[in-house]
Design a protein that fits this description.
- This protein has one domain: Alpha-Beta Complex (Fumarylacetoacetate hydrolase, domain 2).
- The chain is built from 3 helices and 8 strands, in the order E-E-H-H-E-E-E-H-E-E-E.
- The chain has helices at about 40-45, 50-55, 100-110; strands at about 5-10, 30-35, 70, 80-85, 85-95, 120, 140-145, 150-155.
- Strands 3-2-1-6 form a 4-stranded antiparallel sheet, with no helix packed on it.
- The two termini are about 20 Å apart.
- The relative contact order is 0.27.
Length: about 160
């Protein structure tokens, strides 16, 4: 299991077949922190690299602690960080994203139906376990994610109890 600190975008209305980025933010309610928790064995070994199986387990993708309205801050240059057991894993900025929020929404609006309330995770900076630099999460580990202006969230990895 892996962590991924990400900027999450929450839609307030449906964008359809957008062609440019000029009006994209009119569709966005706000932004928040997401920990895009990923079960890499499900993602890579079971589904051959198809992401949805590795990202859809119960309790995955914790969101918050707040949803900041889109006009309340400039989300294009916010520090984004994560820690595992108090040790820094990711330390970057939303300014280093490969695709802007606007570009992501334009692209997605042309390939799938997006609805009000949908959450779009925008991608993660370097520093996740899949990179090979760090071990994967184990029971008892504590993951913290933080984005400047959006607060901090923390989760403890626990064993599944049926």
């Amino acid at each position: 299991m892996d962590w991924e600190a990400e900027l999450a975008v929450v839609l307030k209305r449906t964008p359809r077949y957008l062609t440019d980025t000029a009006s994209v933010l009119d569709y966005v309610a706000g932004v928040a922190i997401a920990n895009d928790v990923s079960e890499r064995a499900f993602q890579n070994e079971i589904s051959g690299g198809q992401w949805s199986k590795g990202k859809s387990a119960e309790t995955f993708n914790p969101l918050g602690p707040v949803l900041r309205p889109i006009g309340d801050l400039d989300f294009h240059d916010l520090r984004i960080r994560s820690w595992v057991n108090g040790e820094v894993r990711q330390d970057s900025s939303t300014s280093e994203m490969i695709f802007s929020v606007e570009e992501l929404i334009v692209h997605l609006s042309n390939h799938m139906l997006l609805l009000a309330g949908d959450v779009i995770n925008t991608g993660t900076p370097a520093g996740v376990a899949m990179s090979g630099r760090f071990p994967y999460l184990q029971v008892g580990d504590v993951v913290a994610t933080e984005i400047e202006g959006l607060g901090r969230q923390e989760q403890k990895v626990v064993a599944y109890d049926s």
